[in-house]
């Protein structure tokens, strides 16, 4: 009897509709997570370049600014796969003298 019930459920169109919808929802969630990660990388890149160029033009960086840039922007940016021009900006920031406010 249990085999009959299992076969009936597997053969029903409702089961396959549910199964396919479940898979498409997880694909949509994965696409959304990828898009969100790309957006975060883009936003971090923008902040690193914008703020970094300001510090470079100014000729120094404060300890707080450096810690914020390194800890909260650049390290997460790298972990998410960011690189390129933001890496170059960070290398220039690392050469700046650290001054008190």
Structural write-up:
The structure is a single chain. By secondary structure, the protein is mostly helical. It has one domain. 83% of the residues lie in helices and 4% in strands. The chain has a two-stranded parallel sheet. Helix 2 packs antiparallel against helix 3. The longest helix is centred in the middle third of the chain and has 46 residues. The chain starts with a helix and ends with a strand. The relative contact order is 0.12. The mean pLDDT is 87.
Backbone structural class: mainly alpha
Helix fraction? over 70%
Please trace the helix and strand order, writing H or E for each element.
Answer: HHEHHE
- How large is the radius of gyration? 25 Å
Largest sheet: 2 strands, parallel
The total of beta strands comes to 2
Task: Write out key terms for the chains shown.
single chain, 101 residues, mainly alpha, two-stranded parallel sheet
List the helices and strands and how they pair.
Blueprint: H1 2-11, H2 13-58, E1 61-62, H3 63-79, H4 85-95, E2 98-99
Parallel strand pairs: 1-2
Brief characterization of the structure:
By secondary structure, the chain is mostly helical. The chain is built from four helices and two strands.
């Amino acid at each position: 009897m249990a085999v009959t019930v299992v076969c009936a459920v597997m053969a029903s169109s409702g089961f396959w509709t549910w199964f396919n919808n479940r898979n498409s929802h997880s694909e949509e969630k994965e696409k959304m997570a990828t898009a969100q990660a790309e957006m975060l990388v883009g936003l971090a890149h923008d902040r690193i370049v914008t703020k970094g160029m300001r510090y470079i033009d100014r000729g120094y960086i404060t300890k707080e600014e450096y810690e914020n840039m390194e800890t909260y922007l650049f390290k997460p940016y790298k972990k998410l796969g960011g690189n390129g021009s933001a890496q170059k900006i960070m290398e220039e920031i690392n050469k700046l003298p650290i001054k008190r406010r």
